[in-house]
Design brief:
By secondary structure, this protein is mainly alpha-helical. It has helices at 18-32, 41-58, 66-95, and strands at residues 3-4, 13-14, 63-64.
């Protein structure tokens, strides 16, 4: 079963408690998210949850640390930066034609 290690409980949090996982992801996203994108933090948390749920589906019994949740949040934000750069370069290509 997918669990999240937290500083307080030694055994971790059961996967069924996705509400608690979401709280930890929201904290991680808030920590790594640039201020300019704070209005989209909930969208980033949703993207993180999708990745965590996919991992839970693929690997039963895996434990997730708080560090891993921060890594997922960081990766989601990096993917957004790359997506915006790609869109920006495409739009400037068409503007110069």
């Amino acid at each position: 079963m997918l669990q999240v290690e937290e500083t307080a409980p030694a055994g971790g949090i059961p996967a069924a408690d996705f509400g608690l996982v979401r709280v930890h992801l929201a904290r991680a996203v808030a920590h790594v998210c640039p201020r300019a994108w704070w209005a989209r933090r909930d969208d980033f948390v949703q993207d993180c949850m999708v990745r965590i749920l996919d991992l839970a589906r693929r690997s039963e019994g895996k434990r997730l640390s708080a560090t891993y949740l921060y890594r997922v949040a960081y990766s989601v934000l990096i993917d957004e930066i790359r997506r915006r750069r790609r869109i920006s370069s495409i739009s400037t290509e068409y503007a110069t034609r």
